[in-house]
Amino acid sequence: MHEVIRNVTDRIIERSAPTRALYLERIRAASVHGVNRQRLGCSNLAHAMAPMNEREKNALSHMTQPNIGIVTAYNDMLSAHEPYKLYPALIKRTLMDLGATAQVAGGVPAMCDGVTQSQPGMELSLFSRDNIAMGTAIALSHNVYDGALYLGICDKIVPGLLIGALAFGHLPALFVPAGPMPSGISNAEKAKIRQGYAIGAVSEDALLKAEAASYHSSGTCTFYGTANSNQMLLEMMGLQLPNGSFVNTNTPLREALTQEAARTLLTLIEGRGEYKPIGGLIDERSFVNAIVGLMATGGSTNHTIHLIAMAKAAGIWLNWDDFDAISKVTPLLCRMYPNGQADVNHFRDAGGMSVVISQLLEGGLVHSDVETVVGRGLERYIVEPSISNGAFGFMSGARLSRNKEVISSVAEPFSDEGGLKLLCGNLGRSIIKTSALKPAGYLIEADAIVFESQEELQSAFKRGELERDFIAVVRFQGPKANGMPELHGLMPPLGLLQDRGFHVAVVTDGRMSGASGKVPSAIHLTPEAAKGGILAKVMNGDRMRLDVENGTLELLVSAEELESRTLLHPDLSGNRHGFGRELFSTIRASVSSAEEGGSIFDTVGKERG
Fold it and tell me: H-helix or E-strand containing 504?
């Protein structure tokens, strides 16, 4: 085991000891022998099984066989989740053949960040994660379930489902993906057309045709953003079947994996196998493995927020120093868009998670002695699912890449360090994604141009006011200000300016997600402007310095001058109503900082220390 990884793990275990112990004690207290529905009265149980067929009712009435809850994020607007419409029936048939029953315990909302991007609805995106966690808890609160299958893929959905699952940490759990759509037009061509549209060289009709050729069918979008980073993390944490995340949707192998997921869950339930509740199955080492995977694959920056919130739900405390230390010793093994031109289908064909996990184990960068849904040991994930002679099974997986332009090795990585870095300075703490930066982007010193929204920057670009070196300060975009929407609208104009030879960067208390790339972007700045951060004092023309190599972000203004300035308090009333935003006022008022998980939950936090 690499010394730094071991030391970071030990620090996490030490700082988490009081709350982790309390969480595990709560799991033990919630666990019972036998099926959970034994605790219900006859009227309660009659309500629960009223819509079931006679065979299912008979199974539940005998109080011996497990009943599985299905928590689904199905809707048919979100392409990644549309295939889930068929999953409950398939899961029920599979489990009934094994003597068990299943019910759709509840549905949770699943919004598409691709649809709400740069729209008012995006201001609900981050908050939807905690809403999903609460919806998961409501679904499972009926207490008739002995385990749960979670159907979710995309950005806030998987983190929300996992937070909810950990609130029911005494139940065995397994996550079930639906797979990516087939590859559409190349990412390079799509980016070129988007930039052409930004300068008026491409028509709106041509842009729509290009976008529709990229996002063209059911299944997860194929670029390596937050949705696909979620899938990678679930495998690194042992909560999903091995190397099955990126098997295409609506294929025989995908269907076979779904059935195998149902069968596997039964092996984790008391009386059907070795009892492995999710709250005990994952631990501090599981989260360290997840962070290593994030760095090695160049995954989404959103997980510097989500992993902290997910870990806290299990009584585990992570911070950005952990991410930074791990990134410094984790080689970058993958090149997927936006860090390269490959997509997740190319990644799968190159060997996928089997190769990544094999290489990380070889380099001593991940904990091998962890529990997973398929048994103890991360080595169990160096396999590939297949159907041979009509039978499903796992065969030995690739340990070396089949395409070294997509997946490299620990001996010859794309970079010696991972894809993220912590920046600190007089403005606070922020995260920058480095895996797609060219060397010229590692040090930017320029004057600040201050914007209160991404739309302000876009307008300035169209007026021709940004043809120079500068650092765009886009503030009042944090959780408390407006829900921390993603700011992808910044990328086309800034990317064009960069291509024209200007040195540009972004500093913001907002998010950029997994689709940010070549423009240096110090994001998630904490403390945010709306909570009194120094970012609220920055003025046009202030000199700023963003230094990736040294991990610093500095406003080059004297302490005396900053002390004399007043904090700006802009009118944010326009972000408080419309598109349901008025319903989330209590969340904005109580949400924690980005480094604290951007969450309203305290779970076991009050008892810490």
Answer: strand 504-508
As a whole number of Å, the CA-based R_g of the chain is 24
Average pLDDT over the chain, rounded to an integer = 94
Exposure of 206 in the CB half-sphere (CA atoms within 13 A): 14
Work out the end-to-end distance of the chain between its first and last CA atoms, rounded to an integer number of angstroms. Answer: 29
**Non-local CB neighbours of 80 within 8 Å, separated by 6+ positions:** 153, 154, 178, 180, 219, 220, 221, 227
In a 13 Å sphere around the CA of 562, the CA atoms on its Cβ side amount to 17
> Residue 422's beta-bridge partner residues?
431
Which amino acid is residue 532, in one-letter code? G
DSSP 593: -
- Which tens digit of pLDDT belongs to each residue from 223-238? 998 999 999 999 999 9
pLDDT digits (tens, 9 = 90+) for 97-128: 999 999 999 999 999 888 888 888 888 999 99
Phi, psi of 396 (to 5 degrees): -55, 135
Distance CA 69, CA 265 (A): 11
Q: Which residues pair with 415 in a beta bridge?
A: 332
Residue 571 CA to residue 588 CA, distance in Å, equals: 15
For residues 419 and 88, give the distance between their C-alpha atoms in angstroms, rounded to a whole number: 37
- Strand ranges (E), 369-437: 383-388, 391-396, 420-425, 428-433
Q: Is residue 80 within 8 Å of residue 219, measured between CB atoms?
A: yes
Cα(263)–Cα(246) distance, integer angstroms: 20
**C-alpha torsion angle, residues 426, 430, 435, 441 (rounded to 10):** -30
What confidence tens digit (pLDDT) does each residue in 480-509 have?
A: 999 999 998 898 899 999 999 999 999 999
Amino acid at 423: L
DSSP letter string over 53-111? -HHHHHHHHTT-S-EEEEEE---SSSTTTGGGGGHHHHHHHHHHTTT-EEEEEEE----
* Residue carrying structure tokens 């141009």: 449
Asked if 343 contacts 223 with a C-beta cutoff of 8 angstroms, the reply is: yes
Contacts of 555 (CB under 8 A, 6+ apart): 425, 426, 427, 448, 534, 538, 542, 543, 544, 562
Nearest to 244 by CA among 394, 391, 366: 394
- C-alpha dihedral (127, 132, 138, 139), degrees to nearest 10: 170
Token pair of 239, please? Answer: 């909560």
Would you say the C-alpha torsion 450, 452, 453, 459 has a positive or negative sign? negative
Alpha carbon separation from 574 to 407, 457, 497, 571, 577 (Å, rounded): 45, 18, 30, 8, 7
Q: Which residues lie across from 220 on neighbouring strands?
A: 180
45-49 long-range contacts (CB < 8 A, ≥24 apart) are: 45/144, 48/103, 48/142, 48/144
Per-residue confidence (pLDDT) for residue 188, from 0 to 100: 77
Contact 518, 498 (CB under 8 A): yes
243-277 in b/e form (b: 16+ CB < 10 A) is bbbbbbbbeeebbbbbbbbbbbbbbbbbebeebbb
The kind and range of the H/E element at 553 are strand 552-555
CB neighbour list of residue 6: distance below 8 Å, 6 or more residues apart: none
Query: What is the spatial distance between Cα 84 and Cα 71, in angstroms, rounded to a whole number?
Result: 11
